[in-house]
């Protein structure tokens, strides 16, 4: 989360800098940010899936009735 937040802050500064540039920004300027966001989401989803599977296997998951 810290890595993702730091990356978002840096890209935000870059977006502000690009907004003040004379050239008109394109979707290609935003694509790398979206790709990194998707990558971080994939890592988080995988991490949560593995953690959930380990909890269920060890019997520490949610109580069943």
Counting helices, strands and paired strands, the structural category is mainly alpha
Strand percentage: under 5%
What are the segments in which pLDDT stays under 50 over at least 5 consecutive residues? none
Quaternary: single chain
The tally of helices reads 2
Q: Mean pLDDT across all residues, rounded?
A: 82
Overall geometry comes to elongated
Query: Mind describing the biggest β-sheet?
Result: none
Q: In percent, how helical is the residue content?
A: over 70%
Please compute the radius of gyration using only Cα atoms: 19 Å
Distance between the termini: 35 Å
The total tally of domains equals: 1
Order of helices and strands: HH
Which helices and strands, and how do they pair?
Blueprint: H1 2-19, H2 27-58
Quick synopsis:
The protein is built from 2 helices and no strands. It has 65 residues and is an all-alpha fold. The longest helix is centred in the middle third of the chain and has 32 residues, at 27-58.
Descriptive overview:
With about 60 residues, the chain is an all-alpha fold. The protein has two helices and no strands. It has helices spanning about 1-20, 25-60.
Descriptive labels:
65 residues, mainly alpha, 2 helices, 0% strand
